[in-house]
Amino acid sequence: MEDIIKCLEAIRLDQEATILRIKNRLTHSYNADVSAGYRNVAINIAIATPQTRRLGIDGHVCELQLILRPFHILKTESGHQRYVAFRNKRAE
Q: Is 0.90 surpassed by the pTM of this model?
């Protein structure tokens, strides 16, 4: 958790990054039934640098997912396929 917090703080302090949304699936209040138990912190960010402005992509929104190592180990290709099947059944 300390590394996730450090990463979030580094992004928050980066003047070229704009955090648009944070979805914290690690919080106790998050309803894990919605995601079949999947846990991470998903951050939507836009990066505005001279290069992204020149390319016209400074408004492009990227998602960065921060995940704890034990969850990453469990997140195999078949594990992700099961999540996609679960999500599709929910019509999301």
A: no
